[in-house]
C-alpha cells in the first residue's frame, strides 16, 4: 500500500493462536510484557515473555512481524484536589490508566472524578497493594506532609518511571529532610520531580496540570522536556 508521504505498508493477515492469546491476556493481568512474533514466510507464531526474551528477538524485521503487548501506562495521583481533577482527565485522554487516592472523604468523591478510578484510603496502604512498575508514574498533590511523604516513600521504593510532588523549592527541601530522616538516601530523593511539572509559569490548577502532564509525557518518551 502506497502512502502520500512516499512510504509503503505491508499488510499481514493471520489467525492468532488461541493459546498464545490466552497467555498474553494472563501476562497483561500481571503487568508482564510480551511480544507476539509472526514469521511472515511460514506463518509460525511464537511468544516472547518478559523484557529479556523480548530483547533477544531477531532484529531482522523483514521476515518477522513483532506485536508488543504491555500493560497500560498508569498514573497514580495522591490527592483528590483541584489540580488532580484536571490532571486525571487529561492524562486519561493521552492513554494513561488513572487512579486517584485520598483518605479525605470530602475530596474523594466520585462525582468529582467521573470515569476515574477513585480510592478513599491512606496513600501508603493503597499504593502498597498496587503494582508499581516501569510503566507507572506517581504524582503526589495532597499538599499535606504526612500524606505526601507516605505516597513518596512507596513510590521511591518501586521502579516507577516518574515520581513527582507538588510544592515550592522550600517545601521540597523540608520534604527531603523528612524523607531523609526515614532512611531515604540522596539517590532516591533525586528521583523526585519537585516542584512538579515543567517550568512554564503555570499559576492556575489547570495550567499546573498541563505542566505536569507535559513532564509526564516527556518522561514516558525518554525526553527531558527542555
Strand content: 15-25%
Q: What's the architecture of the largest domain, going by CATH?
A: 3-Layer(aba) Sandwich
Please report the total strand number as a whole number.
9
**Helix proportion of residues, in percent?**
25-40%
- What is the class of the largest domain in the CATH system? Alpha Beta
In DSSP terms, counting alpha (H) and pi (I) runs of 4 or more, how many helices? 8
Unreliable parts: none
- Gyration radius, to the nearest Å? 21 Å
Key terms for this structure?
226 residues, alpha/beta, Rossmann fold, three-stranded antiparallel β-sheet
Question: How would you describe this structure to a colleague?
Answer:
- The chain is α/β, with parallel strands linked by helices.
- The protein has 2 domains: 18-69, no CATH class; 74-220, 3-Layer(aba) Sandwich (Rossmann fold).
- It is built from 8 helices and 9 strands.
- It has helices spanning 18-29, 50-55, 82-93, 123-128, 145-156, 169-181, 186-189, 205-220, and strands at residues 34-39, 45-49, 64-69, 74-78, 97-101, 117-119, 136-140, 162-165, 192-193.
- A hairpin with a 5-residue loop joins strand 1 (34-39) and strand 2 (45-49).
- Helix 3 crosses helix 8.
- The chain is elongated and about 60 Å long.
Amino acid at each position: 500500500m502506497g502512502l502520500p508521504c512516499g512510504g509503503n505498508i505491508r499488510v499481514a493477515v493471520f489467525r492468532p493462536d488461541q493459546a498464545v492469546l490466552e497467555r498474553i491476556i494472563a501476562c497483561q493481568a500481571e503487568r508482564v510484557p510480551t511480544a507476539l512474533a509472526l514469521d511472515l514466510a511460514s506463518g509460525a507464531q511464537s511468544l516472547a515473555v518478559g523484557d529479556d526474551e523480548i530483547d533477544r528477538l531477531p532484529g531482522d524485521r523483514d521476515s518477522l512481524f513483532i506485536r508488543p503487548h504491555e500493560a497500560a501506562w498508569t498514573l497514580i495521583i495522591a490527592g483528590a484536589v483541584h489540580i488532580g481533577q484536571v490532571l486525571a482527565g487529561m492524562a486519561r485522554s493521552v492513554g494513561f490508566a488513572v487512579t486517584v487516592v485520598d483518605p479525605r472523604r470530602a475530596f474523594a468523591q466520585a462525582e468529582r472524578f467521573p470515569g476515574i478510578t477513585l480510592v478513599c484510603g491512606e496513600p501508603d496502604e493503597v499504593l502498597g497493594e498496587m503494582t508499581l512498575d516501569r510503566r507507572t508514574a506517581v504524582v503526589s498533590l495532597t499538599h499535606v506532609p504526612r500524606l505526601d511523604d507516605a505516597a513518596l516513600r512507596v513510590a521511591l521504593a518501586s521502579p516507577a518511571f516518574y515520581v513527582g510532588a507538588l510544592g515550592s523549592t522550600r517545601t521540597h527541601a523540608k520534604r527531603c529532610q523528612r524523607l531523609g530522616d526515614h532512611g531515604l538516601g540522596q539517590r532516591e530523593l533525586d528521583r523526585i520531580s519537585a516542584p512538579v511539572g515543567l517550568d512554564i509559569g503555570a499559576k492556575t490548577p489547570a495550567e499546573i496540570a498541563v505542566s505536569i502532564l507535559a513532564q509526564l509525557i516527556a518522561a514516558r518518551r525518554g525526553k527531558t522536556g527542555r
